[in-house]
Design brief:
The chain is of the alpha/beta class and about 375 residues long. The chain contains 14 helices and 14 strands. Strands 1, 2, 3, 4, 5, 6, 7, 8, 9 and 10 form a ten-stranded mixed beta sheet that branches. The protein has a four-stranded parallel beta sheet with strand order 12-11-13-14, sandwiched between helices. The relative contact order is 0.10.
Length: about 375
């Protein structure tokens, strides 16, 4: 009979030699009153990721276990997470941390395990997280669904989508996987895991920043899907299908909230066209030093809309601050955020997070919150 563990950490890795050591070290420094194991799943990496894994397995043979795939599972759409949890992990609880993410609190596992021990009605515990630049040196945004500890309802989890919680911050009971509902069988997305974790008694949330997500890291979801319109559409179709299945699984209990969430899959460009006259009338007020803040999906939607309606802007920026001086596909020059803050008269915030950040920066010009024109998604 093998050794028993209270917690199993699952770390999926693929071509993450630049980040993996940081992730593993943040797991190894955890201070706990119980034993935990680290299961690293390598999805046929072609860089130096495997060498890093072998180094740590040699140093910690009792704590670290590895699954080396022969064929890339992600590209085949395989649900390897469920297989690892059900057939390989030995812990009573499961913690997640992708190879390009990391933890910033040595007490994370202990706090989350204790929270679920004290809240037997909940299957999952989440924490405050944040996103950082690809090099991990600068914080970009917060992933903080509420202020103060408390319960996150299933309704809020459904409405929030897959980015409502930071994946590296979720912690749940292994028994959650004993009986899979039909919606879980469609795809192993983080969104599915979060919804399932909320169904019995909500998700217990610890309002302490303990987990970090790298934005646009090599091999990450943001880099692979969020920047690719075709892949994003495929993912949206999958999410709509799983929500339809969830509606059946729960006998219509969350039908109204699922119907509302479905609006998130209306393309941003389409949402803006509904409000075309209102937006164009607004933009006629500003004829100089007007910049877009945000180069993600919404920022690109703004550029596309302005391009099609011959609205001139003076440039675009993003908190990541890459490609400074280059032009976007729409011909707009990319500026450093500091230059925009110093020179702009008007900043168009492409997301609610950008708007909130700009308010905190005490920018003296006008800030336009474009979330109001793209309310879904």
């Amino acid at each position: 009979m093998g050794k028993s563990y209270e917690v199993s950490i699952i770390c999926n890795a693929y071509n993450q030699e630049s980040y993996l050591e940081k992730a593993i070290e943040s797991m190894l420094v955890q201070k706990t009153s119980f034993d935990y194991e680290i299961i690293i799943h390598d999805d046929v990496s072609t860089d130096g990721t495997v060498d890093i894994i072998r180094k740590y397995v040699t140093a910690y043979p009792e704590k670290i276990k590895v699954i080396y795939e022969q064929k890339n599972q992600y590209s085949q759409g395989a649900d390897f997470i469920t297989e690892v949890i059900k057939d390989i992990a030995k812990g009573k609880y499961i913690a997640m941390c992708e190879g390009d993410d990391f933890w910033i609190d040595e007490n994370k596992l202990q706090l989350q395990r204790d929270a679920l021990e004290n809240h037997p009605e909940c299957d999952m515990c989440a924490c405050w997280g944040c996103t950082v630049t690809e090099d991990g040196k600068r914080e970009i945004s917060q992933i903080r669904p509420r202020t103060g500890n408390g319960i996150l309802s299933t309704e809020n989890v459904i409405l929030g989508g897959g980015q409502y919680l930071v994946t590296a911050g979720i912690f749940f009971r292994r028994q959650m996987y004993e009986n899979l509902l039909e919606f879980e069988k469609i795809t192993p997305l983080d969104y599915v895991i979060q919804i399932k974790g909320s169904l019995r008694g909500g998700i217990f949330y610890i309002d302490k920043k303990m987990a970090v997500y790298r934005r646009y890291a090599t091999g990450s979801w943001t880099n692979d899907v969020l920047k690719n319109k075709e892949k994003l559409k495929v993912q949206w179709d999958i999410e709509k299908k799983l929500l339809e299945a969830l509606d059946l699984d729960t006998n219509g209990k969350y039908h109204e909230i699922i119907t509302e969430r479905m609006k998130a899959y209306i393309p941003f460009e389409e949402q803006m066209e509904y409000r075309q006259q209102e937006i164009l009338q607004l933009m006629r007020k500003y004829d100089s030093k007007c910049y877009i803040w945000g180069m993600g999906r919404r920022g690109k939607s703004l550029e596309d809309f302005f391009s099609r309606h011959s609205v001139k802007i003076d440039g675009i920026c993003d908190s990541v601050n890459t490609d400074i001086g280059k032009n976007t596909e729409y011909g707009n020059k990319i500026f450093h955020t500091e230059d925009v803050l110093n020179n702009a008269k008007v900043i168009l915030a492409s997301t609610k997070w950008a708007y909130e950040d700009l308010i905190k920066m005490n920018f003296v010009g006008n800030i336009i919150d474009f979330q109001q024109y793209m309310p879904y998604g």
